[in-house]
Design goal:
The structure holds two protein chains of two kinds.
Chain A (H helix, E strand, L loop, with lengths): L3 H29 L6 H10 L1 H15 L7 H19 L1 H25 L4 H20 L4 E2 L10 H4 L1 E2 L2 E2 H19 L1 H11 L1 H6 L4 H27 L1 E2 L7 H11 L11 H20 L6 H25 L5
Antiparallel strand pairs in A: 1-4, 2-3
Helix pairs in contact in A: 1-13, 1-14, 2-13, 3-8, 3-9, 3-11, 3-12, 3-13, 4-5, 4-6, 4-11, 5-11, 8-9, 9-11, 12-13, 12-14, 13-14
Chain B lengths: L7 E10 L2 E11 L4 E6 L5 H8 L7 E6 L2 E3 L4 H6 L2 E4 L11 H5 L14 H14 L15 H13 L5 E5 L7 H16 L3 E5 L3 H7 L2 E6 L2 E7 L5 H9 L17 E10 L3 E9 L3 E5 L6 H8 L7 E6 L2 E3 L4 H6 L2 E4 L3 H5 L6 H6 L7 E2 L2 E2 L1 H15 L15 H13 L5 E5 L7 H16 L3 E6 L2 H7 L2 E6 L2 E7 L5 H8 L11
Parallel strand pairs in B: 3-8, 3-9, 6-7, 7-8, 13-20, 13-21, 16-19, 19-20
Antiparallel strand pairs in B: 1-2, 1-4, 4-5, 9-10, 11-12, 11-14, 14-15, 17-18, 21-22
Helix pairs in contact in B: 13-14
The chains are: A mainly alpha, B alpha/beta.
Bound molecules: adenosine-5'-triphosphate (ATP) and magnesium ion.
């Protein structure tokens, strides 16, 4: 701690600073545009955040265990394309489980490489990002996928349906969030995820099978990707090969915004959900005040930098103490 | 005392953390050329007081005077500029960097264009290492060094500054006797040059060897200052924990059960070879030797962290293969590891979760971790080991060093193992708790546990063991019973001096 107070402030900023900035931001946009806080707009934001949110839930496990997953965007494209293609070939009832199995296999492969072979997760998942992209292109022959008979299938239910007036994507997001939150906070497995990310050596000394825990986190991550792919495919009933491109960074941004540390050992499902919504509202606000769509990319990037910087600053407050 | 101006004076320092009043109006001074020992139980506030002094914590109340001038120090850098240097209890080095870079971090010698002047850097660092009799060069990577050597790098770092006050916070916790001698020479040298030295340790013999005065902290307040020459260990202990200690050796005859653990011809490449011994249930076997004699490596092999190249391990007369900590735990072996920060604890996790970590999979109600079961275990060991923490939610990283160690011990005791291996169990633990832990180890043996104690402290090994195995360079030199062992024969055995009945090649 270069300085006790600086430390306290930077830690406060890292935890609450984002929230403070977010509240100011919300008020600002609400003043600029009175539609911003209207019920339908808010619901719209939550709904359009569902795909990103579902993916971020899974990656939260990976990040807490001290690893990264940069492959989720391209994996989501893969799931979407596969399920769309199979829909017309073997019908939705079979297409969905087959797609889940294939996506989980990819997650299992990453988990094997990172957990059991102890390869660096950044390198493995960055490699997988482009490998899976190649796989998707090979599978689709470079073409976009479309469901032929859009009206004659119940497949659109996941992305477009609603139950008792609540859109299905929101139900899926919140349902999954509850399930995973309980898994992370209440079960022995969740505890082990925190231990592995907090101090992997001590976890091993405590009889925790680190490779297995890591594998599990990637399986969870890929399961969530499969759900996201399902939502995406069902929403648009047709897709490009690159539909998930860039989402890996947005996912990380949401997780960091929620206050998890990229060094592992901290974070919760709920915080990630908050991060997802912050990101969603900021992007929506920018659109509402009339900024071009692509401004989002720059702003998202700025937010990531800001969040990472605050994270590091809080960490440095502790780490630099003896050296400074 | 003379009417010298103190090199450093702290007046009425108060420091609180959430839920903890760590310092409650403490006053303390160091004269130039004096070694002032600071004693107190784990969590008494010693390290916190020194961190206030070194600009790492800001006091809530109170003032700091250096050579009579009132000063405020907002950062360690400012403290350093005022001539105050702190050598930390918990090591804090940049592991990937070289020894020389660590020593001069923040003030690396520069050439033109701001480039680091490597020859000067290496020469200056080399000179300091030589003064400390270190056996590693300035170019070594810190991450490759043993804990003891890292400690020496910390000390080296303090010597680069022209300090008026130097604080040593438990510097000897992981030093060998030979290194201690060097350290004490350094301290005497500082003293001769008029530097004020604060020395924190839980080892009475060191305090009485090196200090001029002794101040005792208890529960965050100053309990008294004694002149070392006019007092004795018992008086200091009284002041510190409010009672005397029984420091007698263990002579009670053990009540031996069947052989719980038998190791036959165990070898592991260059680390140790042909290790054979037995531990009965109800018995405490001490492993004594110099740092690097292979004791920790044997423990790690028994716990499944290393693969032996030859030999067999038998538990309760059955040969077992222990391929991982998981199988060790399943077979009823617990290991309290040597290095609490790296191997023992998840610092960012709370106290309760750290203690229950190895068995969290079994503490379930349905699919969920049972809060009640966990808290019961935590409460039990908090009381048994007198762990000082406001509640179980406190992050382990916020506990004092000694209380962190108690968490590690509690964690492995709570597994109720058949064979308990403890590696340097009382590192950083105060005298009162230390004797409690020794008693606990004896009690466990009486209840039928087989216990292996690895320690570099001869009094500890002598105190708790029924049998002592002396090791030298990866081999067992000799086995002693509690009756026949003497300090002399033990020292000879661990230095590789051949004694009769010896089985060294
Ligand atoms: N950063 C912190 N946050 C919360 N509590 C703290 C923090 N640092 C210290 N404490 C608490 O302050 C008290 C004093 O701790 P300190 O480290 O000064 O003890 P100590 O005398 O050095 O003990 P030891 O002999 O075990 O090293 C302890 O109860 C500890 O838990
Ligand atoms: Mg301390």
């Amino acid at each position: 701690m270069a300085d006790e107070r600086l430390n306290a402030i930077s830690r406060l900023l890292a935890r609450q600073g984002i929230l403070v900035a977010f509240v100011i931001f919300m008020i600002g946009f609400a003043l600029l545009n009175d539609r911003f806080l209207a019920v339908d707009n808010v619901l719209g934001v939550v709904r359009s955040s569902a795909i990103l949110g579902v993916m971020a839930l899974g990656v939260t496990f990976v990040v807490i265990s001290g690893n990264l997953d940069l492959s989720v965007g391209s994996m989501m494209s893969f799931s979407t394309i596969v399920v769309l293609d199979l829909h017309d070939k073997i019908g939705p009832g079979l297409a969905i489980p087959v797609m889940f199995a294939m996506t989980l296999a990819l997650g299992g492969l990453i988990g094997l490489l990172v957990g059991y072979f102890r390869l660096n997760s950044l390198i493995v998942t960055l490699g997988m990002l482009s490998a899976i992209h190649g796989l998707t292109l090979t599978y689709s022959g470079g073409k976009n996928m479309d469901i032929a008979d859009k009206a004659g299938t119940w497949f659109s239910f996941f992305g477009q349906g609603s139950v008792l007036g609540v859109p299905v994507p929101i139900i899926l997001l919140l349902g999954l969030a509850c399930l995973l939150s309980v898994l992370l906070a209440k079960t022995p497995f969740g505890r082990k995820v925190y231990a592995v990310g907090g101090n992997g050596v001590a976890a091993t000394f405590s009889g925790i099978r680190r490779p297995r825990v890591v594998l599990m986190t990637y399986l969870i991550s890929s399961f969530c990707v499969a759900v996201a792919g399902l939502l995406q495919a069902s929403r648009s009933m047709g897709s490009q090969n690159t539909v998930g491109q860039g989402l890996e960074l947005e996912v990380l941004a949401a997780i960091i915004l929620g206050g998890a540390s990229l060094l592992g050992g901290s974070g919760t499902v709920f915080k990630t959900l908050v991060g997802v919504l912050i990101l969603g509202f900021i992007q929506n606000g920018l659109l509402l005040v009339g900024l071009e769509f692509y401004v989002q990319y720059v702003v998202t990037w700025l937010i990531i930098i800001l969040a990472v910087w605050l994270d590091i600053a809080a960490k440095r407050g502790r780490l630099l103490s003896p050296i400074a | 005392m003379s009417v010298q101006t103190p090199a450093l004076r702290l007046v009425g320092i108060v420091k609180t953390f959430p839920g903890v009043r760590a310092l409650d109006g403490v006053s303390f001074e160091v004269l130039p050329g004096e070694v002032h020992a600071l004693l107190g139980e784990n969590g008494a506030g010693k390290s916190t007081l020194m961190k206030v002094l070194a600009g790492m914590h800001q006091p809530d109340e109170g003032a700091i005077f250096i050579e009579g001038r009132k000063v405020t120090m907002r950062t360690p850098l400012e403290a350093k500029a005022q001539g105050v240097v702190l050598i930390h209890q918990e090591l804090s080095l940049a592991e990937e960097m070289s020894v020389a870079e660590n020593i001069y971090l923040g003030e690396l010698p520069r050439k033109r264009f701001g480039l680091v002047d490597r020859p000067t850097l290496l020469a200056k660092a080399g000179a300091i290492l030589e003064r400390l009799n270190c056996r590693f060069g300035p170019e070594a990577t810190v991450g490759d060094l043993s804990i003891a050597n890292k400690q020496m790098v910390e000390i080296a770092r303090a010597l680069t500054v022209d300090a008026k006050t130097v604080v040593f916070d438990e510097p000897t916790a992981s030093l060998t006797d030979a290194e201690k001698v060097v350290l004490f020479d350094i301290i005497r040298d500082l003293k001769a040059r008029g530097v004020g030295v604060v020395y924190i340790s839980h080892r009475m013999e060191e305090i009485f060897t090196i200090s001029d005065r002794i101040s005792v902290l208890r529960d965050g307040s100053h309990r008294g200052t004694l002149i070392t020459a006019d007092t004795d260990e018992d008086a200091v202990t009284q002041l510190m924990i409010g009672r005397s200690l029984d420091l007698s050796r263990n002579h009670e005859a053990p009540d031996l059960g069947p052989v719980a653990l038998e190791v036959r011809g165990l070898s592991c490449d260059a680390l140790f070879s042909d290790i054979s011994f037995k531990v009965h249930s109800g018995e405490v076997v001490g492993f004594y030797g110099l740092v690097g004699a292979g004791r920790t490596e044997i423990a790690e092999t028994l716990f499944g962290l290393r693969t032996p190249s030859a030999g067999a391990i038998h538990l309760d007369g059955r040969e077992v293969k222990i391929s991982s900590p998981v199988s060790a735990i399943e077979n009823g072996i617990s290991l309290v590891p040597e290095n609490r920060k790296e191997q023992g604890l998840v610092l960012g996790m709370n106290c309760r979760d750290n203690i229950t970590l190895p068995q969290v999979g079994d503490l379930t109600a349905g699919p969920f971790v049972s809060d009640g079961a966990e808290i019961a275990i935590f409460d039990h060991y908090r009381d048994k080991l007198e762990i000082k923490t406001p509640n179980w939610r406190q992050l382990v990283g916020n506990l004092s060093g000694g209380n962190q160690q108690k968490i590690v011990i509690g964690k492995w005791l709570s597994m109720r193992p058949k064979v308990l291996i403890v590696d340097e169990p009382t590192r950083g633990i105060d005298v009162g708790s230390k004797s409690e832990i020794h008693k606990l180890i004896r009690d466990l043996a009486r209840q039928g546990y087989a216990v292996i104690v690895i320690s570099s402290e001869m009094p500890e090994v002598l105190h708790v063991s029924d049998r002592i195995i002396a090791m030298y360079q990866g081999r067992i030199m000799r086995e002693f019973t509690a009756e026949e062992v003497t300090e002399d024969t033990l020292v000879q055995a661990i230095s590789g001096i051949v004694a009769n009945g010896d089985r060294a090649a």
